[in-house]
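Because discrete structure vocabularies remain unfamiliar, we first show an illustrative case, written as a sequence plus integers encoding its fold.
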Amino acid sequence: MALDSRIVITGIGLTAPNGDSLSEFRNSLLNGISGVETIETRYMNTVPAGVCHFDQYKYQNKKQVRRGTRAGSISIYCANEAITDAGLDLDVPGRDRVGVFLGITEHGTVETENEVYNLGQYGNDVKFWTHHHNPRTVANNPAGEVTLNMKISGPHLCIGAACAAGNLGLIYGAQMLRLGEIDVALAGGVSESIHSFGIFASFKSQGALAVNEDPAKASRPFDKDRNGIVVAEGGCVYILERLEDALARDAKIYGEIAGYAYNSDASDFVLPNPTRQAQCIRLALKRAGMAPSDIDIVNTHGTGTKQGDEFECQAINEIFNGSETSYINNTKSYIGHAMGAAGALELAGNIPSFTDSYVHPTINIDNIDPECELKNLVIGTPKKLDHVDTILNNSFGMLGINSVIIVKRYKGSLET
């Protein structure tokens, strides 16, 4: 199998706080519709959060939902929606030739917190600890639940890559296709983060948890008055195929993976490193054979933290400040930070630009932070371009992991 095989996207299934399909999600992004609301969380009363409202019983019965995890249910919903969207019969390549690769930020904390809390209600008697705990908390759980639900017998794993993980799911799927290990990849990212009080408590203790009287305005990357992260759940699964296989079955093609990169800061547990982020962007551009001016949309990682936003803007300005044709936006302003799902969801929200030529805006910027000034940052109103041929998607995470993926419009030829 050629390591330079062209990899295309033929299906997308997702659930986001403001949409349970790509069309609903895109409509919300073009019309300024936030998916952030207020929820109750243990020990902390109310917090703003990005909450998904998909039908968890569409592909699972009540017993399966009870036995599994929220991350598993999100993954199963997205994977089934993606297969349907792709018009793919898994028995044609053979279910042993299908792989499932999902990025995650964390897994197991929700179940462990719940069990410890429940045990405390029964005098800490361990006979009340569920026997489902181990399969619920292993790191491969979300991807594994997909294989059980869909009877997929090819490889599966979860890629633990903090908040860079959504991009990494796609990168790993593309690599496995190029190696010839599989013929179809279900790849992306998933997050159940809002069900863990520990995540909220940790961000609060760091002074990095967003608060606002209006939850829809709590997530405000690049705004001078931003005050932290809005935690969100969500998921997005892509169907990836080699181009020749997609053409052979006359599949619709959303776009082609043009380049990608990931690297490490090697400098701090939490604080990002703009030099390493810039290096990651440059490497993805080099692998795609593109210059900064070839990129039409840059979707930023911006989470709403002071230094995180500033450092990313430094990296972006270093590379794109000379480009008149690159437009910049942010998706977390609508949905909050979906952690392991963030990169995959945010890329998906921009992919319809290949068809409608709009750059969805960033919302909740009332007063731009001077340290976050970006040329061609789209704010408030969608920007109509003559065409959109390329999207660059940033996703960065704790412990200094950076990921960048570039997707380009497929132009209808086997020739590069």
